[in-house]
Specification:
This protein has helices at residues 21-26, 50-62, 73-79, 97-106, 120-130, 147-166, 168-180, and strands spanning 11-13, 31-34, 64-68, 87-88, 113-117, 133-137. It is of the alpha/beta class.
């Protein structure tokens, strides 16, 4: 399977607040893995807002929640200082190690887990190649992307064009809105 075929999310939503978690639960999803930067908070924000803490605490009642981030221990632990939620730092997405670790933490099967993130090349590709479904969300603040992410976005644009050309129906239903929203 070509790389671009593994960069197609299961769904796209404008933010983590708009994901139909109830439906996911009904579908049998037991764990939610979240990216941190630009999925929950912008790179220029230090910690979660009250609304974020409230949302994650609500979700914790129905799901095992794990944060999988490529950033440092210091940044993730500070961001999550107001909530008790397990996290993996320096996850090296799209490599499998972070996903593997998260899966062993929640002790679930791959098909009962969903990854939620704002990047095709790390969150979606990383999860899909490991066999986990992914939900793509709009970046909180695209302008705050770090250098490495700016590079990933260039790759992302190439991949998006390939999907649009070769799998137009999937592009239309799962990615067009994502492109339009940025
Ligand atoms: Mg991110």
């Amino acid at each position: 399977m070509a790389v671009y075929q593994k960069c197609i999310p299961h769904e796209y939503h404008a933010s983590i607040f708009e994901i139909p978690y109830k439906t996911l639960k009904e579908q049998g999803i037991k764990s939610l893995f979240f990216d941190l930067d630009n999925t929950i908070i912008g790179y220029d924000e230090v910690s979660l807002s009250k609304e974020h803490v409230q949302l994650l605490n609500t979700l914790k009642k129905d799901f095992d929640v794990v944060i999988i981030s490529n950033t440092s221990f210091k940044r993730v632990s500070l961001a999550l200082c107001d909530i008790e939620v397990p996290f993996i730092w320096h996850a090296k997405k799209p490599l499998k190690c972070g996903f593997k670790k998260a899966l062993s933490m929640v002790k679930q099967n791959k098909e009962d887990v969903i990854m939620i993130g704002d990047q095709l090349m790390t969150d979606v590709y990383g999860a899909t190649r490991y066999g986990i479904q992914a939900i793509l969300v709009r970046s909180v603040k695209r302008k705050s992307d770090r250098k490495i992410t700016q590079f990933n976005r260039k790759l992302e644009n190439i991949v998006l064009k390939k999907i649009q050309k070769n799998l137009p129906e999937l592009y239309e239903s799962r990615l067009k809105q994502y492109v339009q929203d940025h």
